[in-house]
Amino acid sequence: MENQLQVIVKDSGLDETKARFILENFQNYFEIASEWTKKAQTIIVKSADQKADMAMARVGRLFLREKRIDIEKARKNLKEQALREGKAIDGIANVLKALIIPIEEYLDGQERFVEIMEAKEAEIKRIELETKIEADRIAKEKADKEELERLRIETEVKKRELEEKEKALQAEKDKAEAERKAHEEALAKEKRESEARAKAEKDKAEAERKAHEEALAKEKRESEARAKAEKDKAEAETKKQNEITRKKIEKEQHEKEELQRKLDGLIKCPKCGHEFKGASNAGH
């Protein structure tokens, strides 16, 4: 039964000599890969105490690494031939590497079991630490959020209480202001009424004073008029009496003068009726 390597060489179309040459160069590696596929499966490390298995894994890994390097060298040497040979060589090398690399990687994992386990444990611890940190962060965020919510609610309550107090104070202030305004209006009204009464009384007193003054002035004028009339009447009467007296005096004076003239012209004895010449006529 043909193995995978023989099938690749056959399908490549190489001549028999080339095909045999390639098989001779790579057949041994194919057998090694097949052998180590079985050997690697027997090496299973599950504990750090399996030092021998880990050492065997190391030996196998280094051996296969060496063979993989040899295969790569052979691939490069053979690929310098014709293109068809290169394709065949690449195909064979890829197949062989595909067979060897998984085993190599497996054995590497077995060899570095402790390292890998430590890395896994470190990764687990890292994940646990990150998980714890994340959990702590989430818890802290939750606590902070709850605290913020508590503070918000407390702030809202205090705000409402403050608003209610402010409303109550404002209501009291408005009430006091209304009472003050009402009191001021009452005082103003009382003042206006008092001023109106005072003004009315003042106006009344002023009117009475003016009426009294006018009455006094009228009485004074009437009195002065009566006094003047009486004075004028008295003066007229005096003037009249003076005129009468003057005329009487003048008349009496005239009569006296007339009598004197008569006396001066003629003196008649009252007893005998003899007329005598006056002194003015004694020389005659």
Topology summary:
Layout: H1 4-11, H2 16-42, H3 51-78, H4 83-111, H5 113-265, E1 267-268, E2 275-276
Antiparallel strand pairs: 1-2
Helix pairs in contact: 1-2, 1-4, 2-3, 2-4, 3-4
What does this structure look like?
The protein has 284 residues and is mainly α. Helix content is 86%, strand content 1%. The chain has a domain at 4-111. It has helices spanning 4-11, 16-42, 51-78, 83-111, 113-265, and strands spanning 267-268, 275-276. A two-stranded antiparallel sheet has the order 1-2. Strand 1 (267-268) and strand 2 (275-276) form a beta hairpin. The radius of gyration is 84 Å and the shape is rod-shaped. The termini are far apart. The model is unreliable at 278-284 (pLDDT under 50).
Radius of gyration: 84 Å
The side-by-side strand order for the widest beta sheet comes to: 1-2
Broad structural category = mainly alpha
Number of helices: 5
How many angstroms does the end-to-end distance come to?
A: 243 Å
Q: What share of the residues does DSSP label as strand, in percent?
A: under 5%
pLDDT average, as an integer? 82
The percentage helix is over 70%
Which residues form runs of ≥5 with pLDDT under 50? 278-284
Overall 3D shape: rod-shaped
Number of strands: 2
Report the sheet with the most strands, covering strand number, pairing sense and barrel closure.
2 strands, antiparallel
Taken in chain order, the helices and strands follow as HHHHHEE
